[in-house]
């Protein structure tokens, strides 16, 4: 008779954390890396040296802007679930992670371009 109604949790049971939008989370994590990969493929397959430079400039500008936009979206996405020091750590770790991944994709693309076309 003293039991709480079935729709309420007992007072000593912790509340489940809210759900995150996993689609938006993965999109914000993978979009800058995917854009870098696409632009590096365009650079490697470009026919002339001038086109490679234009693709590189445009590509890195787009990737940089996408990274900033994704950083804001990532921050909003994880703020639904995390709070306090863990939220700050995740928000500050995002640009470091993206910088490492984007540079790795860029570096691999440059190595492929050197292998395909040689030094000029």
UniProtKB/TrEMBL annotation:
| Alphabetically ordered keywords of this record | Membrane, Transmembrane, Transmembrane helix
Give TM segment ranges: 25-43, 55-74, 86-114
- Highest taxon listed in the record's lineage: Bacteria
- What is this protein called in UniProt? Cox cluster protein
Organism of this sequence: Haloferula chungangensis
